[in-house]
C-alpha cells in the first residue's frame, strides 16, 4: 500500500467510523425513552430524586454502579425488598442493627413520610430502567449482616440454649418496635441462625436456597398444582415453612431427602409466637 492508498484508507475508515458512531448515537437517543421508562417519571418520582440528592445518598450508595461504593448498590433494591421494609428502614435504620456492635453507620435522616414514599417511588423507577445488566453483580458490603447477634431479646431467640429447652420470655414490645426489623434480628440470631443456610442475595444458594424473590416464587407455587401443604397465601406458606418445613418439599430439590426437608423442624417450639410473627413479617418483605 503506497502513501496515497494509505491516506485514502485512513480517510475512508474515519468516515465509516463517524457514520457508525452517529448512527448508534441517534439510535440510542431514539430508545432512551423506552429504556428509561420516561413515561413513568411522575411528580412523585421527581420528588424522590430530589430527596436522594438533598440527603446526599450517593455519598455512600450507588445507582447503576455509580457512587461512593461504601454502601450497597440500590439499582434493583425495590425488586428485592418490599415497600414496608424500605419504609421501616428509612424511618429508623438503627432498628435493624446495633451500631456499637455491628458498625453499620446508616444515619437516621429524619425525612417525612411523604419524602420516604417519594424516594421509594424514585428507586422503583430506577429499578425498572433497562440497565443492560449493569452493574454485573450485586455490590455487597462487608459486615452488612450480623449472624449470632443478641441485640435484643427478640433477636436472641434460642441463642445459647440447649435444644428442646423452653424459649426465652419475649420482652414487651413498644409502639416503636417494627415487626420487620425485629424479624430480621430473629432471622440472624435464631438457633440455628437462618443466615447459616440461607442468603438473601439473588442467585446465592448455600446449604439452603436463596430467599431473594421468596414472595414471587411462593405466589407462583401457590397458584400451581404442585403445592402439597395447607397454606392458602404467602404469609401462611412462609409460616408453614418455618414451623413445619417438611409440609411441602420441592420435588427433586437438593435440600431434602426421602420426603423430609433438611431444614430444622425445631423453630416452632424454640421461637415464641411473637418471634415467628416477626420472622414471617421480615420474610414477606423479600420480594
TrEMBL record:
Keywords: Electron transport, Heme, Iron, Membrane, Metal-binding, Transmembrane, Transmembrane helix, Transport. SUPFAM superfamilies: Cytochrome c. It comes from the Bacteria. Residues 152-179 are annotated as: Disordered. GO terms for molecular function: electron transfer activity; heme binding; metal ion binding. It holds the Pfam family Cytochrom_C. Residues 152-164 have a biased composition (Low complexity). The chain crosses the membrane at residues 6-26. Residues 43-127, 178-287 form the Cytochrome c domain. This is Cytochrome C. It comes from Massilia eurypsychrophila.
Amino acid at each position: 500500500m503506497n502513501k496515497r492508498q494509505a491516506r485514502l484508507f485512513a480517510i475512508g475508515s474515519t468516515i465509516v467510523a463517524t457514520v457508525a458512531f452517529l448512527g448508534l448515537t441517534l439510535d440510542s437517543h431514539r430508545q432512551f425513552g423506552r429504556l428509561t421508562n420516561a413515561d413513568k417519571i411522575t411528580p412523585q418520582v421527581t420528588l424522590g430524586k430530589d430527596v436522594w440528592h438533598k440527603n446526599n445518598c450517593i455519598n455512600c450508595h450507588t445507582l447503576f454502579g455509580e457512587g461512593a461504593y461504601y454502601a450497597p448498590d440500590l439499582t434493583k433494591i425495590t425488586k428485592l425488598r418490599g415497600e414496608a421494609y424500605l419504609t421501616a428502614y428509612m424511618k429508623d435504620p438503627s432498628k435493624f442493627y446495633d451500631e456499637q456492635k455491628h458498625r453499620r453507620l446508616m444515619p437516621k435522616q429524619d425525612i417525612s413520610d411523604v419524602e420516604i414514599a417519594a424516594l421509594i417511588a424514585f428507586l422503583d423507577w430506577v429499578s425498572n430502567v433497562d440497565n443492560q445488566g449493569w452493574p454485573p453483580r450485586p455490590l455487597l458490603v462487608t459486615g452488612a449482616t450480623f449472624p449470632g447477634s443478641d441485640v435484643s431479646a427478640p433477636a436472641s431467640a434460642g441463642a445459647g440454649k440447649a435444644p428442646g429447652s423452653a424459649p426465652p420470655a419475649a420482652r414487651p414490645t413498644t409502639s416503636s418496635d417494627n415487626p420487620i426489623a425485629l424479624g430480621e434480628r430473629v432471622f440472624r440470631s435464631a438457633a440455628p441462625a437462618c443466615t447459616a443456610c440461607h442468603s438473601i442475595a439473588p442467585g446465592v444458594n448455600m446449604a439452603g436456597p436463596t430467599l431473594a424473590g421468596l414472595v414471587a416464587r411462593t405466589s407462583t407455587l401457590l397458584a400451581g398444582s404442585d403445592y402439597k401443604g395447607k397454606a392458602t397465601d404467602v404469609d401462611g406458606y412462609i409460616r408453614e415453612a418455618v414451623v413445619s418445613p417438611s409440609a411441602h418439599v420441592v420435588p427433586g430439590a437438593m435440600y431434602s431427602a426421602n420426603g423430609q426437608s433438611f431444614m430444622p423442624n425445631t423453630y416452632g417450639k424454640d421461637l415464641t409466637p411473637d418471634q415467628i410473627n416477626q420472622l414471617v413479617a421480615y420474610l414477606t418483605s423479600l420480594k
